[in-house]
């Protein structure tokens, strides 16, 4: 597994705390009800700051995807080709790798489960075809 780690800012800390428990959460605006991911300080619809966190079912569908053939860094060189998918969940989308699935098996609309993989002590969300 890669040693590449995401930078965690104050808005995203609850997301990564949940990931450490192998739970997927997303933000929902307490004012207008809009959902969003990645985590932000303000609602992207009404710009309100009253944001709560909701648990996700971790089940979604591939909204779009690409197959990565050229590694973006040495950390990913041994993994190519791999699928990078935008997964539609409960009102939000999450960009994840599908490291265990063959690229030719990916398709828009396929069912996905979000799972967590430990990388250097950090739990990272990844997609898995169902
Ligand atoms: Zn809002």
- Rg over alpha carbons: 15 Å
Poorly predicted ranges (pLDDT <50, ≥5 residues)? none
Query: What is the string of helix and strand elements?
Result: HEEEEEEEE
What strand order characterises the main sheet?
6-5-4-7-8
- List bound small molecules: zinc ion
Give the integer mean of the pLDDT values.
93
In whole angstroms, the N-to-C terminal distance is 22 Å
Task: Please count the beta strands (DSSP E, at least 2 residues each).
Answer: 8
- Which geometry do the CA atoms define? globular
Number of helices: 1
- Approximate strand percentage: 35-45%
Biggest sheet record:
5 strands, antiparallel
Q: What is the percent of helical residues?
A: under 10%
Structural class: mainly beta
Structural summary, described in words:
This protein has about 130 residues and is mainly beta. It has one helix and eight strands, in the order αββββββββ. Strand 5 and strand 6 (about 95-100) form a beta hairpin.
